[in-house]
Specification:
The protein is α/β, with parallel strands linked by helices. It contains 17 helices and 22 strands. It has two domains: about 290 residues, nicotinate phosphoribosyltransferase (Alpha-Beta Barrel), CATH 3.20.140; about 140 residues, TIM Barrel, CATH 3.20.20. The protein starts with about 35 loop residues before the first helix and ends in a 7-residue tail after the last helix. The structure holds adenosine-5'-triphosphate (ATP), 1-O-pyrophosphono-5-O-phosphono-alpha-D-ribofuranose, nicotinic acid and magnesium ion.
Length: about 550
Amino acid sequence: MEAAMANGPKKQEKTAGGIDGPTNPMVTPLLTDLYQFTMAYAYWKAGKHTERAVFDLYFRKNPFGGEFTVFAGLEECIKLIANFRFTEDEIAFIKASLPLSCEDGFYDYLRGTDCSDVEIHAISEGFVVFPKIPLMRIEGPIAVVQLLETPLINLVNYASLVATNAARHRFVAGKSKLLLEFGLRRAQGPDGGIGASKYCYMGGFDATSNVAAGKLFGIPLRGTHSHAFVSSFMSPDEIIDKSLQSCDCSNACEDFVSLVQAWLSKLKWSHLLGGIFGETNQSELAAFISYALAFPNTFLALVDTYDVMRSGIPNFCAVALALNELGYKAVGIRLDSGDLAYLSCEARKFFQAIEKEFIVPDFGNMNITASNDLNEETIDALNKQGHEVDAFGIGTHLVTCYAQPALGVVFKLVEINNQPRIKLSEDVTKVSIPCKKRCYRLYGKEGYPLVDIMTGENEPPPKVGERILCRHPFNESKRAYVVPQCVEELLKCYWPGRSGKDREELPSIKLIRERCIKQLGQMRPDHMRRLNPTPYKVSVSAKLYDFIHFLWLNEAPVGELQ
Ligand SMILES: Nc1ncnc2c1ncn2[C@@H]1O[C@H](COP(=O)(O)OP(=O)(O)OP(=O)(O)O)[C@@H](O)[C@H]1O
Ligand SMILES: O=P(O)(O)OC[C@H]1O[C@H](OP(=O)(O)OP(=O)(O)O)[C@H](O)[C@@H]1O
Ligand SMILES: O=C(O)c1cccnc1
Ligand SMILES: [Mg+2]
């Protein structure tokens, strides 16, 4: 399918393999909550700061009323870890921010602190993930890992939320549609804008209008033009250089304006189109001609500034037909207001009528891009009504995650000094799952993922063809035997610390995007549907189940009735 106009040269694909600094220079060791430093001090004062702790980073509920989430933000987490060192200036600020009674030895400790003794296992970026399963397992000296809590959650939260939002928009739009992220002006500040472009691409968008994101990440850039461009022109008389070379450079049209006007009058009096429109808007005609003279190979026009059917479409077609006469192929139109289903269908009929009447092959397939406050619901409504839109430009609802502003990612201590820890709560969904764990995805006969299972670190892994009991972590009666056809270990070592393990490579954003699209395509459709999707099963092994409940009983005080 023809894309909306491509601006600028193709950028080299960026890889993160070498690990350099975080994209946003504000990501420093100070990008954390004060209480992480006060706790770090108290750990240090207690002589406990080097005790080895294991934390899990996970979320409790899928966003947007769905039953899946796309994991994103890992690369930026690893870049934070790789660069985690305090400058003197930062240490001076921490010193000024903590009570005077804090001893200097703590600041000497911070001076020598980095993440060389921290080990991170994580699910690969772009994977489809589910509640309670650790997205990352962070192991290291407790004081350091505690400092990492806030920035790691921050880097994963919006990234995963907006990537999921993008995936959901892709799901409702369908594979064949071109999805353009137009959100920069509406995003929550510069970081929101850059992050949105990166993670929407990861979640399945095709391109962004955000030039900085194009340069930073090699994301394809696309764009059209605005209403201001159209209304800035008064009439074709103001066009000075009217000449246009033919596409193959074999001849030059000295007066492209007259050629367009001739086509406009042919359209007006044609059999098929006669009577649909009268005088079109001359400001718009001048704008379209000027745009075509500037970009004859990629001409795309915003047709709703004055009146779509009575002016925008006929003006566009006259310019497109004039370009066609010179061997160029116009790209299409953008609709940015009105009933997008109706207008796209009417526009399509007009293009098809022209193809037939003037025998211009492919004119009927002209690209129709739609924009204007689009979201999952409006795209779903357009689908139900029937439409002829080929590309959607989506801004506000996509990048601000209008339907749900945050993903509830948490960071919980699961083990210290090899002792499993649990966090209890009145609300059972908030009880943490203790122990340093391994996580697996088990696939069924039909190739779909069936269940994710957590086991203790030292339990034997599930085996293909071998029956394993999968238990709901908190509901005794919910359990199932699974005979996996394929077993995939989810947590991989992305930062080995001093463990001597191999480090997983950080793939390029393009590879992550492909992985994400593949993963989403592998899910059983009932987990993905918009209305009442089936929850995906997240479970623990029988051994881990027993241990959770043993620890729960151990830690929960027994009440006394008086
Ligand atoms: N056929 C349709 N079915 C459902 N929603 C639609 C349809 N066509 C457009 N929409 C949505 O309806 C809303 C129309 O918004 P609104 O009334 O503010 O804009 P408008 O009047 O079309 O244009 P303008 O931005 O010039 O005011 C947009 O969110 C748009 O995405
Ligand atoms: O609607 P969104 O999903 O956020 O997509 C981006 C919008 O930004 C542009 O115009 P802008 O909204 O700035 O002005 P307009 O509403 O007057 O067209 C564009 O025309 C889209 O309508
Ligand atoms: O290129 C476009 O059409 C565009 C870009 C940003 C916002 N709205 C539209
Ligand atoms: Mg708008």
